[in-house]
């Protein structure tokens, strides 16, 4: 499948992901495929199950057409398991879109297993559109309730928030890695076609920056580290070949832990884009901690690109 592939299952969060995918396909000009994965059943039962699920998926698409201006889309139904089907179907796509519900810690780890597996193993950009429960929805633990601060579970952010703006914003997490340059290139493309502000954010701490040139044996002033971080951000913008008018680019260098800073920056944004290193096993769990935290707590849809 090519273009935008969105996974649906009839839930509220999947419908919201579908709505997001409809707008993304319209903006980008890519074809849209609505994908439903049928239960993993015995071969003898599969034909009947597939027919039933196809009818349900057609109804899901019909309801989406009622919510939007006319749009073109196809739908497909594949047998499970769900993560395997989503990964296989989206292997040639420009983007895979998934819905994910905001729940308490235990619920997130169990019910978010599909999105986590897909994000960790996909070779195409994956956007997770998280449904935020309303006060009338099921109970939460205190850390992730509807009245909790945006950075619940991640600690305070020791940086000023981005200046408020009525214009749409695309926030991109930037560091010195190749995946973050790819994320910045993707974010710039989105901003260029949508007219949004592009906000590349470089979060830094002394422990995350390499020693400053010529600084061995002494401690430079903190302003030198900030200047060095800004140089790193400028280099990433150059490497990404950002083609967005200068008045629509708002680069920010912020002292703080990356996940905390990005979660704060995501509040009110239209999208947060982050890069994830293509590592496996234990390294992925450790080095992917930033993308994992923003997927859990960001205040907007999150697109993850793996290099």
TrEMBL record:
Composition skew (Low complexity), residue ranges: 145-162
Residue span(s) of domain UspA: 4-130, 169-306
Pfam family, one: Usp
InterPro entries for the chain: Rossmann-like_a/b/a_fold, Universal_stress_UspA, UspA
Residues covered by region (Disordered): 132-162
Basic and acidic residues compositional bias, start-end: 132-143
Domain of life according to the entry: Bacteria
Entry's family note: Belongs to the universal stress protein A family.
Protein name: Nucleotide-binding universal stress UspA family protein
Organism: Isoptericola halotolerans
């Amino acid at each position: 499948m090519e273009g935008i592939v969105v996974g649906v299952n009839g839930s509220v969060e999947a419908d919201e992901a579908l709505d997001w995918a409809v707008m993304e396909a319209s903006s980008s000009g890519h074809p849209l495929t609505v994908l439903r994965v049928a239960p993993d059943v015995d071969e003898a039962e599969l034909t009947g199950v597939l027919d039933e699920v196809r009818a349900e998926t057609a109804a899901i698409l019909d309801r989406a057409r009622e919510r939007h201006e006319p749009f073109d889309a196809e739908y497909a139904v594949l047998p499970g398991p769900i993560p395997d089907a989503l990964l296989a179907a989206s292997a040639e796509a420009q983007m895979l879109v998934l819905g994910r519900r905001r729940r308490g810690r235990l619920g997130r780890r169990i019910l978010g297993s599909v999105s986590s597996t897909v994000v960790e193993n996909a070779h195409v950009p994956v956007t997770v559109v998280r449904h935020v429960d309303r006060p009338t929805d099921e109970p939460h633990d205190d850390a992730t309730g509807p009245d909790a601060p945006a950075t619940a579970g991640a600690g305070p952010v020791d940086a000023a928030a981005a200046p408020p703006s009525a214009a749409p914003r695309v926030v991109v997490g930037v560091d010195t890695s190749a995946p973050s340059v790819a994320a910045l290139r993707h974010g710039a493309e989105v901003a260029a076609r949508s007219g949004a502000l592009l906000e590349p954010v470089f979060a830094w701490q002394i422990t995350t920056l390499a020693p400053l040139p010529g600084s061995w044996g002494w401690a430079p002033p903190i302003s030198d580290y900030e200047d060095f971080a800004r140089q790193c951000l400028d280099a990433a913008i150059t490497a990404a070949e950002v083609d967005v008018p200068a008045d629509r680019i708002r680069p920010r260098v912020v002292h703080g832990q990356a996940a905390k800073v990005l979660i704060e920056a995501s509040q009110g944004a239209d999208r947060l884009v982050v890069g994830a290193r293509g590592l496996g096993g234990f390294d992925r769990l450790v080095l992917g901690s930033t993308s994992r935290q923003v997927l859990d707590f960001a205040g907007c849809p999150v697109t993850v690109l793996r290099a």
